[in-house]
Amino acid sequence: MDRFEEAVMAVKERADLLRVVEESVQLRSRGSYHVGLCPFHREKTPSFTVRSDRQFFKCYGCGKAGDVFAFLMLRDGLTFRAVLELLAERHGVGLEGVFARRGGSAGGPRQDVGAVLARVRDWFAQMLQTAQGDAARAYLAERGLDGATDSFGLGFHPEGRALGAFVARQKLPREVLEQAGLLGADGYERFAGRLMFPIHDDRGRVVGFGGRVLVPTERAKYLNSPES
């Protein structure tokens, strides 16, 4: 597990979703869960629920769901990084070495690279919802994260050479994917079969990806691509 994931897990262990939600939502206990009026849409009958045991919220009216990160991103319009920094400061979690700072201008080629990687991120997200992503969705459900895929931009990289085929169909610049470590010069796809999560820079642009294996193998459990 790299420093980024360590920090996220440390924050999630210390930040109580129920307390965060109660800062802005009046909740009533209903046994194993709490219920209140959804803060994300107008309603008269409470359909917003919080499960303390799973650290998970879901509104059965508008469908919004997720963990403490997703809640604050939706409520306050913050980026994932901003929420991480906010909660880390609140709960005394150090973020040294978590965010790599790299050079490069805000426009020109870098902007194009970000757009290409954003297309790939969206494709990974689509693949997560297909039959090929069944195991990845089950993995997320077991950890109570099945409702947070949209908030975090999670996706799935299918086995084989599906990414290369997608790049060819969409006429995306292959060299960008090679520089990002997603494709090898020989077509090898080192993240195949992994749950994928995008890595963003300070401006919210996709600069790389992390990937986790779903089934224990001799391969590294976690991989991170070079940031572009």
Question: How is the topology of this model organized?
Answer:
Layout lengths: L2 H12 L2 H6 L5 E3 L2 E4 L11 E4 L4 E4 L5 E2 L1 H9 L3 H12 L17 H20 L5 H9 L6 H4 L2 E3 L4 H9 L3 H6 L14 E7 L5 E8 L8 E3 L4
Helix pairs in contact: 1-4
Give a written overview of the molecule.
The protein is α+β, with helices and mostly antiparallel strands and 228 residues long. The chain folds into two domains: 89 residues, Zinc finger, CHC2-typedomain (DNA Primase, Chain A), CATH 3.90.580; 116 residues, DNA primase, catalytic core, N-terminal domain (DNA primase DNAg catalytic core, N-terminal domain), CATH 3.90.980.10. Helix content is 38%, strand content 17%. It has nine helices and nine strands. A five-stranded antiparallel β-sheet has the order 1-2-3-4-5. The protein has a four-stranded antiparallel β-sheet with strand order 6-7-8-9, with helices on one face. A hairpin with a 2-residue loop joins strand 1 and strand 2. The longest helix is centred in the middle third of the chain and has 20 residues. The chain starts with a helix and ends with a strand. About 5% of the residues have low confidence.
Could you list some keywords that capture this structure?
228 residues, five-stranded antiparallel beta sheet, alpha+beta, DNA Primase, Chain A, 9 helices, DNA primase DNAg catalytic core, N-terminal domain, four-stranded antiparallel beta sheet
Overall mean confidence score, pLDDT: 84
Basic shape: globular
For the largest beta-sheet, the strand count, sense and barrel status come to: 5 strands, antiparallel
The end-to-end distance, rounded to whole angstroms, is 21 Å
Number of strands: 9
Helix coverage percent of residues?
A: 25-40%
Low-confidence parts lasting 5 or more residues at pLDDT below 50?
101-111
Q: Supply the CATH superfamily name of the largest domain.
A: DNA primase, catalytic core, N-terminal domain
Listing every helix as H and every strand as E from the N terminus to the C terminus, the arrangement reads HHEEEEEHHHHHEHHEEE
Can you count the helices?
A: 9
Main structural class: alpha+beta
